[in-house]
Every structure is written in structure tokens, then in C-alpha cells.
UniProtKB/TrEMBL annotation:
NAD(+) binds at residues 128, 194-195, 218, 222, 242, 271, 312-315. It catalyses: L-saccharopine + NAD(+) + H2O = L-lysine + 2-oxoglutarate + NADH + H(+). Keywords: Amino-acid biosynthesis, Disulfide bond, Lysine biosynthesis, NAD, Oxidoreductase. This is Saccharopine dehydrogenase [NAD(+), L-lysine-forming]. PANTHER family: SACCHAROPINE DEHYDROGENASE, SACCHAROPINE DEHYDROGENASE [NAD(+), L-LYSINE-FORMING]. Belongs to the AlaDH/PNT family. GO terms for biological process: lysine biosynthetic process via aminoadipic acid. GO terms for molecular function: saccharopine dehydrogenase (NAD+, L-lysine-forming) activity. The active site is at residues 76, 94. Monomer. Residues 170-311 form the Alanine dehydrogenase/pyridine nucleotide transhydrogenase NAD(H)-binding domain. GO terms for cellular component: cytoplasm.
Length: 367
């Protein structure tokens, strides 16, 4: 039996990435898959690129009428709705860590009889994610933070962000905004040993920060528990951790106010974006920001210098083509196992977790 897979369009504003690229779609087709692709003017890849490799193109957002035995793959969460979900969905659903509306999202699958394979929780035998946007999230987050610092120095607020054609264009633009180089800027990256942290450090190096001015922290440095004075002593703080349980906050509003005029910190970039997570270690803001409005000011009153937070939850779309190619290539080996998902460990583990979370959500819905 031929394995079918349906690439849906993305409905999140400014999202230009794609879970499948023409490159990976062609490899799946060569392996015997049939790939359906929704037309999407927002996607970084033109419809014609998918058509050229043998995909079947269908109208934008037509997946709800697709046969329910065809898995639907996308990236970001579906628009809020109470409609039951009868399909199998492969996507980032942002509901397993009790984010906003998590129980109602899972209840849609329960009522529709569908299944969720959350991309965040597709893991290898060692528990490591098979595919992640971490590197490009950190890279883009650090770039956005540096751009916001450039605006801050002019006593301005960072304006809308637009995706870049490639990494070189992004690096050159950031350096230009900082006056030719990031030399003299000081930054602290928490989670520096992970994929996301590596991306942030790479960007900071490429825009010209001295190595001594890139402070790299990971679990060893945060083991003592926050809040951390060291965060207040840099220009840019970049949070790249993977949050799995409650931890002491890294930074608090009270700490910032108490520091008064002595604080150096101007920009906090929460790449991890656990905004609605009850364990958010940066409880100085409470909304996600967007490409059209990338920063939110921390409410500090008028007695201390201003501080802005960037909390965009799809930063890699600032480099949509490169980020998509890397992610999709990493995901490909697991997708090739989709025809045997009833026995392939990566898929059986993901389905088991889904059922556990649905049971947990049912308990919440009925209390």
C-alpha cells in the first residue's frame, strides 16, 4: 500500500518555513510515497518547486476535507477552534507542557478520533529530538537581540523584522546596525551547550563580539539557582534552555528594579519562549512578541533604564529556507519509517505519549 502524506499550509502570521522541502519531498517520492502539497503563497518554497519534483498540488487550507487516513504534516499549531480533529497530525502543537489552552487542544483530537505526533517529542533511542530548529532559533534570536540593542542605543524601539534571503545577509545587516561590528557588546547565553545555544553563540561570533564578551552558561553555571546578578551585567541576555520542570527564575522584575541605574542589561531574548508555561524562568513579561512588533517593554516604572524582551516563538523563520532544509533533512529518516508507524519506535513512543497527555487533559476537562 502506498504511503501518502499531505503537507498543509501554515496559518501562523509571518511563518514562511515548511516541514517538507522540495528536496525531502523528492526523496520521499523516490521511496514510494505520494506527497500532496497545499498551495501556499506564504511558504518560502514556490508551489512550482514542489510540482517539479512530482508532488500533487491542491488548494490552500484544504486538508480538513482530505481522507482521514492520510497523515497531515505541518509546522506550527493549528488556528484555535473547537472543531474535532479526525486526522493524524504531525506538527508542533505546543500543548504537552500545559501551555495556554493545552487541554482543549488535546480534546479536539479525542473528540475527532485523530492522533497527534508532536514534532517536539519525536525522539531517538537516547531521548534526543530527531529534528529541531534549535540552531537556527538561537542564531536568529541572537540576531534579533543585537538589532534591538542597536535600536535601544538610539533610544528607539525595534521595528518590524523581515525574513532574510540567507545567513550572510542577516549577519551583514546586524553588523551594519551595530556600526560595522558587534565588538564591545557583551552577551550571556544560558543553554550554551545545546543546539539553540550553539546557534546564538555562532551568530555573536560572526557579528564580531570578542570571545571573552560571549558568556556561555549551561547547567553547571545555573545549578546554584537564580536569580542571577550576572545577567544584569551584560547588554544582551539570551535564554536557550529546554524547560522540563520547575526551576528558580533566572531574572525577576524585583531584581531589575533593585539594581536601579547600575544595570547594563538592555535586551532579553527568550528563545525558549515558555511564555505561558507556569515554570517560565523569565517572569518579567507575559506575552509572545511577533515579527511585526518584536519587543515588549518590561514594566519597571520611570526610575530605572528601559529593558525590552523579545519572545517570538518562531524565530527560525527569519532564515526560512536554510532552517527548513536543515529541519526537514533531519526529520526525513523518521518520515521514511511512517509506513510502519505501528511498530517503528519513534512513532510508537510518540503515540504513547499522545495518549497519556489526552488522558491527562480529560482529567482537567472534567474537574
Amino acid at each position: 500500500m502506498v504511503q501518502q502524506l499531505w503537507l498543509r499550509c501554515e496559518k501562523k502570521a509571518f511563518e514562511r518555513r515548511s516541514a517538507l522541502t522540495p528536496t525531502t519531498a523528492k526523496k520521499l517520492i523516490n521511496a514510494g510515497f505520494e506527497i500532496t502539497v497545499e498551495r501556499d503563497p506564504q511558504r518560502i518554497f514556490d508551489d512550482a518547486e514542489f510540482d517539479a519534483v512530482g508532488c500533487t498540488l491542491v488548494p490552500n487550507n484544504s486538508w480538513p476535507s482530505a481522507p482521514t487516513d492520510i497523515p497531515i504534516i505541518g509546522l506550527k499549531e493549528l488556528p484555535a477552534s473547537d472543531d474535532p480533529l479526525p486526522h493524524t497530525h504531525i506538527q508542533f502543537a505546543h500543548c504537552y507542557k500545559k501551555q495556554a489552552r493545552w487541554a482543549s487542544v488535546l480534546d479536539r483530537f479525542r473528540r475527532g478520533g485523530g492522533t497527534l505526533y508532536d514534532l517536539e517529542f519525536l525522539t531517538d533511542a537516547k531521548g534526543r529530538r530527531v529534528a529541531a530548529f534549535g540552531f537556527h532559533a538561537g542564531f536568529a534570536g541572537a540576531a534579533a537581540g543585537a538589532l534591538a540593542l542597536g535600536a535601544h542605543r538610539k533610544r528607539e524601539r525595534l521595528g518590524p523584522l523581515e525574513p532574510y534571503l540567507n545567513e550572510t545577509a542577516m549577519v551583514n545587516h546586524v553588523k551594519e546596525v551595530l556600526g560595522g561590528s558587534g565588538k564591545g557588546v557583551k552577551a550571556l547565553v544560558i543553554g550554551a551547550l545545546g543546539r539553540c545555544g550553539n546557534g546564538a553563540v555562532d551568530l555573536l561570533r560572526k557579528i564580531g563580539l570578542d570571545e571573552d564578551d560571549i558568556i556561555k552558561w549551561d547547567m553547571a553555571e545555573t545549578a546554584k539557582g537564580g536569580p542571577f546578578q550576572e545577567i544584569l551585567d551584560v547588554d544582551i541576555f539570551i535564554n536557550c534552555i529546554y524547560l522540563s520542570s520547575a526551576i528558580p527564575p533566572f531574572l525577576t522584575t524585583e531584581q531589575i528594579v533593585a539594581a536601579g541605574q547600575s544595570r547594563k542589561l538592555a535586551i532579553a531574548v527568550d528563545v525558549s519562549c515558555d511564555t505561558t508555561n507556569p515554570f517560565n524562568p523569565i517572569p518579567i513579561y507575559d506575552i509572545n512578541t511577533t515579527f511585526s512588533n518584536p519587543t515588549v517593554p518590561v514594566e519597571l516604572g520611570n526610575v530605572v533604564p528601559s529593558l525590552s524582551v523579545i519572545s517570538i516563538d518562531h524565530l527560525p523563520t527569519l532564515l526560512p529556507r536554510e532552517a527548513s532544509e536543515q529541519f526537514s533533512a533531519d526529520l526525513l529518516p523518521s518520515l521514511l519509517e511512517l509506513p510502519k508507524r505501528q511498530s517503528a519506535r519513534v512513532w510508537t513512543d510518540a503515540e504513547k505519549l499522545f495518549k497519556e497527555k489526552v488522558s491527562e487533559a480529560m482529567g482537567v476537562q472534567h474537574t
